[in-house]
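Chain A, query sequence.
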Amino acid sequence: MSKKIFLSFLFVLGILSGRFDVKADNSNYLNNRYPLIRKPYMELPLGSIKAKGWLLEMLERQRDGASSQMDTLYPEVMGERNGWLGGDGDQWERGPYWIDGLLPLAYILDDDNLKRKIQPWIEWTLKSQREDGFFGPSKDYSPEPGLQRDNSADWWPRMVMLKIMQQYYSATRDERVIDFMTKYFRYQLATLPSTPLGNWTFWAEFRACDNLQAVYWLYNITGEAFLLDLGNLLHEQSFNFIDMFLNRDHLTRFNSIHCVNLAQGLKEPVIYYQQKPEKSYIDAVKKGLADIRKYNGQPQGMFGGDEGLHGNNPTQGSELCSAVELMYSLEKMMEITGDLTFTDHLERIAFNALPTQITDDFMNKQYFQQANQIMRQRILFMERGLVILAVFLICIKLGLNLPKACGMRPQIRVLRRWLILLQRW
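Chain A, predicted structure.
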């Protein structure tokens, strides 16, 4: 999937403020409203921190790279046919994922061109809201190669869009967002008992914490009590990470959980801890992280998982999507608990795992990466002559007939296989 590979996740610490002695009634520094527990750290409004030096260079590289060009590099999905622009194309998560990274980049850099690119997604989403509070794509279409045209009403992609709306409000103070989210959360409270999180897909169950944090964010602004009822309901319907960490053996088994669901969902007990501050929730997450390190950990701060969890073998990869989601989870858990061990872990990933999976010009990514991968090789067009020569030498060595072996007209796919054989020879 084309996910949040955007380097703004590298800089999560830069958008956090100091201790909770900031007045809660200052709209720029919202701490938790009673009965939610007070947070030791709070997030500053988007765009209030201005980058300089190396940090600014990284953000500008990101802007000049693929981050700002997905609508032209990937028009089939991110173009005007996207369902989140009202089109009949991709209806699910990929459009919102792009905007979730592009929006903070635009406002951190105060880039008007990027803001103009984002605004149609915001406006269409706001205008799509029905009287009952539902919003977003609502029609499924027949299959089309390369597009996700079904499950349009799934709860999961709306969780991504809620996070986008939070960030948009933080940067602009557009009051439409408050009314929009209030209506949607009333819709959720009324609808989830009969149409639970797992009704369409399982993704929403594992990632409900992103929905939950948005509910608490709105509660801190409006104070409406129904939001706490919704918080309890979302927790009840989400995957039980507390039970998994304390009572099950998932973290010792291969393919027991999708690696991004683990990275993203492990913060759920800490998010809910704000409403129900029982120490067991924090203890469960810390035990879970310890077991992840013990059975699946890798030195760059990640865990082995190329889609499914797969142990700590360094010859198998960790997923780029897992890196950015685990970084966000660690950021939110540090914000809520003040525990700087989460910060240390976040920093290890940010400076060791993440940069190695994105090219310097931000035009390409490596989906999976091995912890012990120290270099990669490419066969360029001008090197094919050397490859062909190597293949001839192998054929002579093995007594093979090259035209017969390669079907008279060797193709690059065949040559690559012979090159692998040569390297092993």
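The chain has 19 helices and four strands. Confidence is low (pLDDT under 50) at residues 1-25, 405-412.
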